[in-house]
Specification:
Blueprint: H1 6-11, H2 23-37, H3 41-44, H4 49-81, E1 85-90, E2 95-99, H5 101-117, H6 119-127
Antiparallel strand pairs: 1-2
Helix pairs in contact: 2-4, 4-5, 4-6
Amino acid sequence: MAYADYRYYITTYLGTAIQEADFPRLSLRASSFLDYYTQGRAARNAGLDALKMACCAVAEQYQAIDAAQALAQKALSASVTSEGELQSQSVGSWSKTYRSGGDSAQQALSSAQAAQASLGAIAQQYLGATGLLYRGRGCGCGYVPPYCDAL
């Protein structure tokens, strides 16, 4: 279940980076990540505005990850089929320098890994004050501290 829809994304989150056709796929991936990151607590709080905002932000990050991975695949394919990506060109004494496809692919993969590593920080930015990221034991009454009245 996706925690945010495209209408929420463009009207409340005020997002512009994701196209409508791509949003269902990206928001589903973002929602799945938020379920994992909150240890399942997100599903019980699906109407929480902070959760919807986190879903939109994580979806945008997944779009960046997809773009970096596609760039890495393209660079890797180019290295197999040709001499590589044009890195520089000079006119006087004509010179051309190519970057190997492996180097371009490695840079793109590093970018994708950095974006993947930041997913947790993005989620924490929106969910930090909600109690959904609490990692300790609950009081047994079904609520997540610090909102539990039974303590």
